Amino acid sequence: MSDINPTQKFTNARLMAVQACYAKEVSDEMWDKVVSKFLLGEIGGQVIEDGIAGREKYIDLQPADAGLFTNIVKEYQEKEEMINEIIRSNLGESLDYERMELLLKCILRMGIAEFYANPDLPAPIIVNEYVDMTRAFFSGTEAKIVNAILDKFAKVIRG
After folding, report:
1. Does domain 6-158 have CATH number 2.30.30.60?
2. pTM for the full predicted model
3. Domain boundaries, the chain
């Protein structure tokens, strides 16, 4: 029996929530079907290791915390319009929500949703998790954008 790091299970739940958001957007399937596929392991649970396009290597993740994953996605479903408006209203003049990279939108959406899904978790933990995730996918200013928006939102929702 392998040791599963409980913290890693939460990190993987966050990543899985972002993956589900992305999958929902590109497939246009209903949320319940997307969530079911992730929970059953039909999709998700892997990341791409750096590699040559077309020859990427997939790495299996440790299991994710299904409860956290489900709660984050549920909060986004229930507050989708409000969360997207929060993102829009916190973008600077130089950023257009409609032209924003879908993955970046999904990271922000699930980050904000987690504040509702996980109200007792300290805000810096949530912010840092999504900023670290952003750094794993992007090498530009995207992590600063995620940090700024989530940090500003944390101050509003948590005081």
Report:
1. no
2. 0.89
3. 6-158
Rounded CA separation 144/153 (Å): 14
Question: Which segment of 11-15, 44-48, 130-134 scores lowest on mean pLDDT?
Answer: 44-48
End-to-end distance of the chain based on CA atoms, in angstroms?
A: 43
Instruction: State how far the alpha carbon of 19 is from the alpha carbons of 47, 109, 115, 129, in Å.
Output: 10, 11, 18, 15
- The predicted-structure confidence for 107-151, as pLDDT tens digits, reads as follows 999 999 999 999 999 999 999 999 999 999 999 999 999 999 999
Residue range 73-99, pLDDT digits in tens: 999 999 999 999 999 999 877 788 889
Return the number of other C-beta atoms located less than 10 Å from residue 36's C-beta. 13
Report which secondary-structure segment, H or E, holds 144. helix 142-158
Q: Are 114 and 65 a contacting pair, CB within 8 Å?
A: no
- Provide the β-strand partners of residue 49: 57
What b-and-e string marks burial along 43-65, b requiring 16 or more CB atoms within 10 Å of the CB?
A: ebbebeeeeeeeeeeeeebeebb
The residue type at 67: G
Half-sphere exposure of 158 (CA within 13 A, CB side): 19
